[in-house]
């Protein structure tokens, strides 16, 4: 009798152990499939992977958890390194500073630093490394672009490629990515912040001028710290003051520091304060309020809204565009822009949108942002579009993660909406 009990006990333990091992294998296989989906370049491959996930079978919540844990990061050496990122058929240079205590066991904040005309990524990285003793907690990436005109197409691709490569190679906290730049690099900070506000927790233009002041409205959820020297004769302090005052009139989060003795040079004495300010700010992947303006489908995404179709006039040249002094800087005129404002009322599961120049859009939805199990009401220019229930979608979640390379901004589903006619 005693031996029979022992035999039964051993059988029970074996079954439990076997089930645990099978569970482990299933999870490992699921994470592998998710990883392969994110790396896949063809629709056919992704379709095959989805079938394999369904055959496990895998629930939505399981796939979401595997997605969060799917990345595998290679070992990295601390210190300052020269690296290259793909830019079309070419490769672009950047320098990356890795903290001495770096480990992929936790996520790390990141700073992207843009140099000015005549500079390079190495010099820009060294300015930050020499200016403060607190750099060891940040990964710093500083790309090199010859002319330093960061708002052109090629350097724009370079910066985005560097960001994407670093996120794939290091465990980056995508809610703590900061952007800084000096001189024309400061112009670049304004440009990237305005065009890609959803990427950054905060931005820091130094001795820069905003090249697109009419789009400053896009920085509603991006804190800005402007640093400028009062004795700067290359880019006068009025450039920083103008952008700062525009943001203040919008009631946005902006901090301005004017250094009385500083000419057109990197402000080493202010770097520590900037880093302290970075630490205080964290990105909200799903802010409850959005304001966004654009004239191109190339820049059509912001947080949880994507414009998928413009009205006919958007992008056409209408009127003229003037700089802050009133001079015409684009005699051919300025493009008509699309505009959208969005507010989420979570307790009522309602989204209110006001649009101009938009025919269709996509809303990305996530648990906690809205109640996925309850009816969703979307009011667009006062007209109601209702959804009884928004079904969670594994494919949509994986496709969005693949496109964004951002595990902190996952979406459980999306809905496509045609703007109701007046």
Automatic annotation (TrEMBL):
Domain (Phospholipase/carboxylesterase/thioesterase) ranges: 167-276
Hydrolase is among the record's keywords: yes
Listed GO MF terms: hydrolase activity
InterPro entries: AB_hydrolase_fold (IPR029058), Plant_Biomass_Hydrol_Est (IPR050955), PLipase/COase/thioEstase (IPR003140)
This protein's UniProt keywords: Hydrolase, Signal
PANTHER family assigned to the protein according to its UniProt record, in alphabetical order: FERULOYL ESTERASE, UNNAMED PRODUCT-RELATED
Name of this protein: Phospholipase/carboxylesterase
């Amino acid at each position: 009798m005693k031996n029979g009990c022992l035999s039964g006990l051993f059988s029970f333990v074996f079954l439990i152990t076997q089930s645990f091992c099978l569970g482990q294998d299933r999870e490992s296989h699921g994470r592998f499939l998710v990883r392969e989906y994110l790396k896949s370049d063809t629709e056919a491959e992704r379709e095959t992977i989805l079938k394999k996930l369904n055959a496990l079978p895998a629930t939505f919540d399981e796939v979401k958890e595997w997605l969060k844990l799917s990345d595998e990061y290679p070992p990295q050496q601390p210190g300052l390194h020269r690296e290259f990122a793909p830019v079309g058929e070419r490769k672009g240079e950047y320098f990356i500073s890795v903290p001495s205590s770096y480990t992929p066991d936790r996520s790390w904040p990141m700073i992207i630093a843009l140099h000015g005309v005549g500079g390079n990524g190495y010099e820009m990285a060294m300015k930050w490394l020499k200016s403060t003793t607190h750099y060891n907690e940040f990964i710093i990436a500083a790309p090199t672009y010859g002319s330093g005109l960061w708002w052109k197409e090629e350097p724009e691709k370079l910066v985005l490629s560097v960001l994407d490569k670093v996120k794939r190679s290091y465990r980056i906290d995508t809610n703590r990515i900061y952007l800084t730049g000096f001189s024309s690099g400061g112009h670049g900070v304004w440009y990237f912040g305005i065009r890609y506000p959803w990427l950054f927790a905060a931005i820091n233009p130094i001795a820069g001028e905003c090249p697109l002041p009419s789009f400053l409205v896009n920085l509603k959820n991006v804190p800005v710290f402007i640093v400028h020297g009062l004795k700067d004769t290359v880019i006068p302090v009025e450039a920083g003051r103008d952008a700062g005052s525009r943001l203040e009139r919008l009631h946005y989060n902006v901090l301005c520091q004017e250094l009385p003795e500083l000419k057109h040079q990197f402000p080493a004495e202010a770097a520590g304060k900037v880093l302290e300010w970075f630490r205080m700010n964290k990105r909200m992947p799903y802010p409850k309020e959005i304001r966004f303006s654009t004239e191109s489908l190339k820049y059509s995404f912001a947080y949880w809204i994507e414009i998928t179709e413009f009205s006919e006039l958007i992008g056409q040249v209408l009127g003229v565009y003037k700089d802050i002094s009133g001079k015409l800087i684009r005699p051919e005129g300025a493009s008509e822009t699309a505009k959208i404002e969005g507010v989420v009322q979570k307790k009522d599961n309602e989204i209110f949108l006001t649009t101009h120049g938009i025919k269709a859009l996509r809303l990305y939805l996530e648990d906690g942002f809205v109640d996925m199990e309850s009816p969703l009401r979307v009011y667009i220019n006062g007209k109601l579009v209702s959804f009884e229930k928004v079904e969670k979608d594994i494919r949509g979640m994986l496709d969005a993660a693949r496109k964004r390379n951002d595990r902190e901004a996952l979406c459980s589903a999306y809905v496509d909406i045609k703007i109701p006619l007046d």
